[in-house]
Design brief:
The chain is built from seven helices and no strands. It is mainly alpha-helical and 165 residues long.
Length: 165
């Protein structure tokens, strides 16, 4: 596999290392909304884990078969993650699930043939990203997930700084 593609996957894996830093976060901060009307830290971690599991269970098998990528309705799928975070699952269990899901996903991606990672595929019937014009592929989606991770990491980091001042 090209070094640049390995580096993208490794960068994707950095989220798991970052999540480990939340193990000592006080419960009050873990359960606090990052801002009015927004999710808590727990809900965000559950949200990302839910999508990691979706990639593992649905997207990667589809890509391996040469089929298109189909993602569910984002709002209802995200709601399930929020409900799970509020279900009584503990902080440490949710963190462990997040770390394990990301590690499994990274390991699976690193073992995939590069042709499967880079093969142009449709995502919900769309062949190219409307923002960049780039063709969709699994690796392209992973890059989007990296940006998504960083968006939420920034939100959580900002929230924790406000709480701990």
């Amino acid at each position: 596999m090209k070094e640049e593609n390995v580096n993208i996957i490794k960068k994707f894996g950095e989220y798991g290392d970052w999540v480990k830093t939340l193990k000592n976060l006080k419960t009050a901060a873990w359960d606090t909304s990052i801002s009015t009307g927004k999710w808590s830290v727990a809900e965000i971690i559950s949200h990302i884990t839910n999508w990691d599991n979706y990639l593992l269970v649905h997207i990667i098998p589809s890509v391996k078969k040469g089929q298109r990528m189909v993602f569910p309705d984002f709002d209802s799928y995200n709601k399930k993650a929020s409900e799970y975070a509020k279900s009584g699952v503990t902080q440490l269990v949710l963190i462990k699930e997040a770390i394990n899901a990301r590690k499994s996903l990274v390991d699976t991606l690193l073992q995939m043939p590069e042709k499967d990672l880079c093969k142009p595929l449709t995502s919900n019937g769309v062949s190219h990203c409307p923002h960049t014009g780039e063709p969709y592929s699994l690796l392209y989606i992973i890059n989007e997930f990296i940006q998504h991770d960083h968006h939420h990491i920034d939100q959580i980091t900002h929230c924790i700084r406000k709480i701990t001042k």
